[in-house]
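can u do me a favor
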């Protein structure tokens, strides 16, 4: 059932909570990145549900139709562009389809797949988050009159960052093939960038480049794995 069809029966947006009555499905494998969106939804009045991969997102969409969907472009079981292309032709269509990534080059791929807009990570401004969503909603779904401009930035829970490190460590500790190595390197690069963890972000980006250029990744992989273990041991706080 389309959430927007029953929007007026549920609740109307207000100046302080302009996304009241909306449900967002966030398709995001990073708990840290998702926690940032959760906090922005909380401040804005929107409800949030999370899927951590394409398969999970498709299961969600079989049960309900969210008002807004935010799709990470790099997921463990494929590209977010696949899901965006499916959503564009689905009936009823999700009102607002947004793509997100820490890689700005993903924007053209997302827009070509049919995304309404692109959120480059990190996204921490509540006002920016609200403005992007509201700009793609019909006029009758927006708050009437002037609304409060929320200038605060959100700060995700550091425990969620540690959860992401544990996820990466599980992958790195298994049988890593080319595809899984590319995924975990990009995952760590994006999460570390959001968290402001420059050493890990740089190391993960080096791993992405080495992998892409076909170079020996042994030393770089060991460096990345060591940094991940340091964060799990709480020897580095973000």
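np, heres the sequence
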């Amino acid at each position: 059932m389309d959430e927007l069809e029953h929007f007026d029966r549920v609740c109307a947006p207000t100046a302080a909570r302009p996304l009241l009555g909306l449900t967002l499905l966030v398709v995001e494998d990073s708990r840290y990145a998702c926690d940032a969106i959760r906090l922005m939804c909380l401040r804005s009045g929107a409800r949030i549900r999370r899927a951590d991969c394409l398969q999970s997102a498709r299961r969600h969409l079989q049960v309900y139709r969210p008002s807004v969907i935010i799709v990470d472009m790099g997921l463990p079981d494929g590209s977010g562009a696949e899901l965006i292309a499916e959503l564009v032709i689905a009936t009823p269509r999700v009102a607002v389809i947004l793509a997100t990534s820490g890689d700005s080059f993903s924007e053209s791929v997302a827009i070509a797949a049919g995304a309404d807009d692109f959120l480059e990570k990190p996204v921490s401004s509540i006002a920016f988050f609200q403005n992007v969503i509201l700009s793609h909603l019909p006029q009758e779904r927006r708050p009437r009159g002037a609304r409060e401009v929320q200038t605060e930035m959100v700060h995700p829970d550091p425990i969620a960052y540690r959860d992401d490190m544990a996820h990466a460590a599980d992958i790195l500790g298994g049988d890593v093939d080319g595809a899984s190595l590319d995924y975990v390197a990009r995952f760590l690069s994006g999460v570390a960038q959001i968290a402001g963890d420059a050493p890990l972000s740089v190391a993960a980006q080096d791993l992405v480049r080495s992998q892409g250029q076909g170079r020996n990744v042994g030393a770089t992989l060991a460096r990345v794995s060591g940094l991940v273990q340091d964060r799990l041991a709480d020897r580095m706080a973000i």
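The longest strand covers residues 96-101. hope that helps!!
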